[in-house]
Backbone:
DNA sequence: AGTGCAGTTGACTTT
DNA sequence: TAAAGTCAACTGCAC
């Protein structure tokens, strides 16, 4: 029987359990489907497609080398499956489980229904360390560990030729029908790029990971930059975890202690990556609804389009915020801390509901991963009920992470002529002085950030005092909180810790963040 | 040399 | 990987 392997966000042949298992059952038809309806969703953009095309070319090449190239269809997946069924008769379907947006969730249920109706067995293999059908969080880390420790599955060396790909089902044909992609400074996709990225990070770039990840200047090279490769599956999480552990243990603790700690800290983040995707897997509504209902009437959706526009276009008048936003426009990437700051500004200072900013950022991030994205949007907006609201001061962040203002001057050219400290707060200069420095075109701040932060803080803490708030928050903690932090909350006030007893690693710190 | 004091630092609390 | 506020200990300096 024909084995159809449906590639989605797992665009590789290495450590691809569905491909390996399917190949052991019969002749394989590797399938990718360009779904026009998916590309009409408000969280998808040409930036993603551009990266996916790189991945698909690389995947097609790897498959062709094995004998059977990728077959690309365009259309609704259920119709495509129907066409295949008519052409080939009954087949088996293989894929990875997908923790995607609401649209892909509904589409996968339609696929499951079609498979039932046509007696087509559909095997979905777990992706990353995410667990489907999870009923409780206890033991999650142990299960994640077991997933990561599994042997990496070897791709089949040969795939028997099933079909000479007809011209209308080649990758080039699919590309011709999708919008052209403007070249920019984005990362490129594909297996070779992914592997090079992984090795350069483990060997050299990640040496100062811990100290360099916070500033957008150093983060560009010191962060792993693996996120888009993981998001679209050019690398598996297991491959990255195992390679990192191997690289770490190859380092001499006496000579390379700092480097070892950096890689340990990175491993913590890989664990954390899956932890967040798990939240969306377990509770898909968090793409749309506040996790804690007490925040439902706080920030009406759709109000204040002018502020949304200023934030999206990098014209808030807050220099460091605008620099980060424009950098993101250009590169499709931003380090974690600056993403958090952008969201904090939209949610607290501009008091915008997180939905519209979430869709905008999803389109901007090459590495858009729905589970991480929506969990983070809610966390940084203070709507989860289980995280202390973190209201970033955009000027303080600029001073801390761009002390000389070089990042601001590079990405906000209107401010390039402003000397010294004033670049962080150009509104403190007179209009005449700003004009003399060539900054006449740069907008005044859309809000007074200190006043806005104070107001937001009051409103958020007001909500937290409401009757019944704590009960709902506890229930959310039970469903989604990491057990490590949950234990601490349940155990009553923790004994005061001295600095020397504080968590020694970034990993421990990260987990604390999720409490 | 000890005292007073303004300013700084750091740990901790509150929002 | 929040920020602001509080408080106590500390520091440097003038007298």
Residues:
């Amino acid at each position: 029987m024909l084995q159809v392997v449906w590639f989605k966000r797992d665009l590789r042949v290495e450590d691809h359990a569905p491909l390996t298992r399917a190949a052991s059952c019969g002749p394989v038809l590797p399938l990718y489907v360009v779904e026009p309806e998916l590309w009409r969703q408000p969280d998808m953009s040409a930036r993603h497609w551009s990266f996916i095309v790189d991945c698909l070319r690389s995947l097609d090449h790897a498959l062709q080398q094995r004998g059977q190239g990728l077959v690309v269809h365009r259309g609704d997946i259920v119709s495509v499956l129907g066409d295949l069924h008519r052409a080939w008769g009954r087949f088996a379907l293989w894929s990875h489980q997908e923790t995607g947006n609401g649209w892909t969730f509904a589409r996968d249920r339609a696929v499951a229904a079609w498979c039932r109706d046509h007696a087509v067995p559909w095997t979905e293999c777990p992706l990353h360390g995410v667990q489907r059908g999870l009923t409780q969080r206890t033991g999650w880390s142990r299960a994640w560990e077991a997933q990561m420790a599994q042997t990496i599955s070897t791709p089949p060396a040969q795939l028997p030729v099933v079909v000479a790909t007809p011209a209308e089902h080649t990758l080039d044909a699919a590309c011709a029908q999708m919008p052209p992609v403007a070249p920019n400074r984005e990362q490129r996709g594909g297996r070779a790029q992914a592997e090079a990225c992984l090795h350069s990070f483990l060997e050299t770039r990640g040496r100062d990971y811990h100290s360099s990840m916070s500033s957008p200047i150093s983060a560009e090279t010191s962060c792993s930059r693996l996120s888009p490769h993981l998001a679209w599956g050019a690398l598996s999480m297991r491959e990255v975890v195992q390679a990192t552990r191997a690289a770490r243990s190859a380092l001499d603790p006496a000579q390379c202690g700092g480097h070892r700690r950096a890689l340990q800290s990175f491993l913590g983040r890989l664990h954390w990556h899956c932890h967040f995707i798990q939240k969306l897997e377990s509770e898909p509504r968090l793409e749309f609804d506040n996790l804690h209902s007490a925040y439902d009437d706080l920030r009406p959706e759709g109000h204040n389009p002018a502020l949304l526009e200023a934030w999206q276009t990098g014209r808030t008048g807050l220099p460091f915020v605008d620099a980060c936003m424009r950098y993101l426009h250009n590169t499709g990437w931003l380090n974690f801390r600056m993403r958090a700051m952008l969201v904090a500004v939209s949610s607290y200072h501009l008091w915008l509901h997180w939905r519209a900013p979430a869709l905008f950022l999803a389109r901007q991030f090459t590495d858009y991963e729905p589970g991480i994205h929506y969990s983070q949007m809610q966390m940084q907006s203070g709507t989860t009920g289980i995280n202390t609201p973190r209201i970033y001061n955009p000027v303080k962040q600029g001073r801390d992470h761009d002390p000389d203002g070089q990042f601001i001057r590079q990405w906000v050219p209107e401010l390039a002529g402003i000397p010294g400290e004033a670049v962080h707060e150009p509104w403190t200069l007179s209009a005449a002085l700003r004009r003399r420095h060539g900054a006449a075109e740069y907008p005044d701040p859309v809000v007074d950030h200190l006043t806005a932060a104070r107001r937001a803080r009051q409103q958020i803490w007001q909500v937290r005092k409401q009757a019944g708030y704590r009960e709902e928050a506890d229930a959310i903690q039970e469903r989604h909180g990491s057990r490590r932090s949950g234990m601490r909350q349940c155990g009553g006030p923790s004994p005061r810790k001295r600095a020397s007893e504080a968590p020694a690693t970034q990993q421990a710190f990260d987990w604390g963040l999720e409490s």
Q: What stands out?
A: Confidence is low (pLDDT under 50) at residues 486-515 of chain A. The first helix of chain A runs from residue 17 to 23. Residues 213-214, 336-337, 340, 344, 388-393, 396-397, 453-454, 457, 506, 509-510, 513 of chain A lie near DNA strand C (CB under 10 Å from a C1').
